[in-house]
Amino acid sequence: MTKTILTLKKAPHVPLEAEVISPDVFATLSHDGVRSLTVFLGKRQLRLDEFFDVEGPGSESIEIHGDAARVKWIGKTMTRGQITVHGNAGTHLGAYMKGGTIEVTGNAADWVGGEMKGGFIRVAGDAGGLIGAAYRGSVTGMSGGTILIGGIAGTEIGMRMKRGTIVIGGAVRDFAGLQMKGGTIVLMSGAELRTGAWMARGTIISLKPLKLMPTFGQACTYVPTFLQMYAKHLNTLGFSMPCDVKDGYYQRYTGDSSVPGKGEVLIWQPIR
Amino acid sequence: MLRITGGQVYDPANNVNGVVRDLCIENGRVVADVSGGRTIDASGMIIFPGGVDVHTHVAGAALNFARGMIPEQQRMARAITRSKVQRAGIGGSTPTTFATGYLYAGLGYTTVNEAAVPILSARHTHEELHDTPILDKSCCALMANNELLLDLFEAGEFEKAREVTAWLIYAAKAYGVKAVNPGGVTGWKWGKDCKGLNDVVPGYKKVTPSTIISALAKIVDDLGLPHPLHLHCNNLGAPGNFTTTLETMKLLEGNRAHMAHLQYHSYGGDDWYTMKSESATIAEYFNAHPNLTTDAGAVLFGDTVTITADGPWQHLLYKLTGKKWGNIDVENETGCGVVPYVYKEKNLVNAVQWAVGLELLLLINDPWRVSLTTDHPNGAAFWRYPEIIQLLMSSEFRKEELKKLAPKAMKRIILPELTREYTLSEIAIITSAGPARALGLKQKGHLGIGADADVAIFNAGKDVARMFSYPRYVIKSGEVVIEEGEIRKTVDGKGFLVKPHFDPKIEDYIRPLFQQVYTMSFDNYPVEMSRIVHPDVRPCTPHKQ
Predict the structure, then answer these.
(1) Does residue B208 contact residue B215 with C-beta atoms inside 8 Å?
(2) B286-339, pLDDT tens digit by residue?
(3) Which of B168, B179, B410, B534 could be stapled to B144 by a disulfide with Cβ–Cβ 3.0 to 4.6 Å?
(4) Could you give the CA distance from residue B211 to residue A100 in angstroms, rounded to a whole number?
């Protein structure tokens, strides 16, 4: 399979807006076509090859090497293909994406998968906040797809999300699932304050105890059947989620009753 | 000096219908002949007088509020990048000021009437209008809920009310008088509304919407303003509101009036589940009463934002949509609400609204009395006008579009039965000649000798929407501002206003009242003439029916 390999020559001194780095854009372009794509450095419009060494013709499989922590909008609105970032990725990674796969071996910044509709994003390291969130003013955030973060994440992950799945390996900060309307957030290592604030629907699963707001009420303890399906699926992706009754059970809380909402927060209680 | 040769000229005001003839321009005016200067070869093109928008919302506090409220739409909006001749901006449902000028000019429009200006924010509105290039602008000041006037109506002092109105018009440097939901917006401050014409306005003992409407229509005619009372009726948007609209039109017999965005006032049915079109009833009455003009206020499907001084209606719309709502308090003058909205094809109410706008345009026989508008940005953004023109010019295209509606909607509308197709000449009337006449701007909307040299030149083609979206040339005051579809030059527009006659002593009455109830100092209230960059004071001639 042909590949397009981009190697960052030197990290830009201000964030580089590079929404052209997308399989949909690259697919039909020649080597020269890829090199001459326009990127924005501040208000300046420059060629892609001023920042990247390009190898191979345009294709649906893109590899990025070098520290791209200041390269924004990688894979914006992509619908197919694959992007692999060997290193870090900047803000708005996979924003509005509809399909395809993005893998990052390092860390990613804020707004991973902002308002994404479908597709798959995996970040091996840490990520910033507002993962799969709604952009300012929008009513809904991500409405499909999967985002997996190996490390820790920031505030307001899954803000206003409607569908899809977010799994965070490390601890997350405040306001996870803020105003969420649906979908699932799995917190492998728990969260800081105000998890699920304003949530109307959707599920937040935490494997570590959470400090819940008083607007969440305890409903029951159980191990729902769907979690076993989830666990099986997440296992194949490298996350192990307990769901065996002999190991423990989930404490179910509902809220946020200040909205009022019908969301659920499931907190794992191991049997000692 | 400019000569345009070989184009088919559509100038309905002078009975010119597609005749190939030369058009000569000198010093910003149409003249009989020029010698020398530039020649534009317009062979294969059609020539229209520059477009005139009789009812739009393009500047002021409410617009800015809306711009700030919809970042989610603006992110997706068309970007206008900076060049040597144009400033940066964005399009979308509420374009930025400079972009508004470029986009209107980009459709061949050269004159717009900002239809709702609270006098308290008139200064701000004029500043924004100044930053809206290329276009000539006029604006209508909101009066029908001004408590200074309502108090006088309550006391039966109509003479004094006329003097106050005239003073207010000039204080706002306005061109006309706008009435929005007369009495209802005042009622909104009590958490109420005035749905019927004979409801007593909350806070008053005698004044009703019908008192306000009759009095203002008479005052406007007595003062002789070039544009009649610009009226947004009570009960906008509600199912069954056509009866209120009919009553209002009956009340206006003997006076002139412009019925704004009639589409929003022509619904039958009892509730949202039974809402249907009553455009036929409204059009029948309207056709028989030449004292009235109107604009369509047509709706197109898609995202937009609704902005109106009709505060109570916007609260209701917010309750219906459950999304965002902005409310601005304009002291004792008027109200204001902003609600982002999506018109959906599969929504029965929206389907009826879409059909009613087109039905009115097709059922009103005299194109001179109905203008093409979307009540920008309420029904759709103005830059979507070409889509409506295409719907009006082709009944086949309408049939195709009707298929997208929910089948249930067909019983509620009469659009499928209408076969009328607009001609190019009629399009020139509803987009330019008619609104210019409704506004009383004699030098606009035609290409006769002495007219302002505002000209739009389109490539003649079968794809009407495309043709009207991308004029080949646009000429404003004799300057070629758009060429080959690009902005080549930006010029300042004029500001039209009127100075109706009033006794300066009326200030002695207003000043103490004002100091008592307003938060602003009286001396800071009127907009100075120097704030209007290229003022053009139009004469007032008292009108007798």
Answers:
(1) no
(2) 999 999 999 999 999 999 999 999 999 999 999 998 889 999 989 899 999 999
(3) B179
(4) 65
Asked whether the beta carbons of residue A139 and residue B69 sit closer than 8 angstroms, the reply is: no
Confidence band of B273 (pLDDT split at 50, 70, 90): very high
Contact status, residue A204 vs residue A265, Cβ threshold 8 Å = yes
Q: Chain A, 122-141: which have a CB under 8 Å from a chain B CB? A: 135-139
DSSP state of B431: I
Interface contact A44, partner B, CB < 8 A: no
Q: Give chain A positions within 8 Å (CB) of B323.
A: 139
- Could you tell me whether strands A263-270 and A203-206 are parallel, antiparallel, or unpaired per DSSP bridges? parallel
User: Is B57 within 8 Å of B65 (Cβ atoms)?
Assistant: no
How many pairs of residues across A and B have Cβ atoms under 8 Å apart? 14
B36 confidence band (pLDDT: 50, 70, 90): confident
C-alpha to C-alpha distance for A180 and A185, rounded to whole angstroms: 10
SS3 for B164? helix
Q: Where are the domains of chain A?
A: 1-107, 110-272
CA count, 13 A, side-chain hemisphere, A200: 12
Calculate mean pLDDT across residues B174-178: 97
CA–chain centroid gap for B454, Å, is 19
Map tokens 């707001």 to a residue: A213
Q: How far is the C-alpha of B225 from the C-alpha of B227, rounded, in Å? A: 5
Q: Residue A249's closest CA among A266, A232, A233, A230?
A: A266
Structure tokens at B359: 């039905």
Hey, where are the domains in chain B?
Answer: 46-495
Whether the Cβ atoms of residue B311 and residue B335 lie closer than 8 Å to each other: yes
| Contact flag A139-B323 (C-beta cutoff 8 Å) | yes
Fold topology of B46-495: TIM Barrel (3.20.20)
Here the ipTM equals: 0.72
Decide if pLDDT at B545 tops 70: no
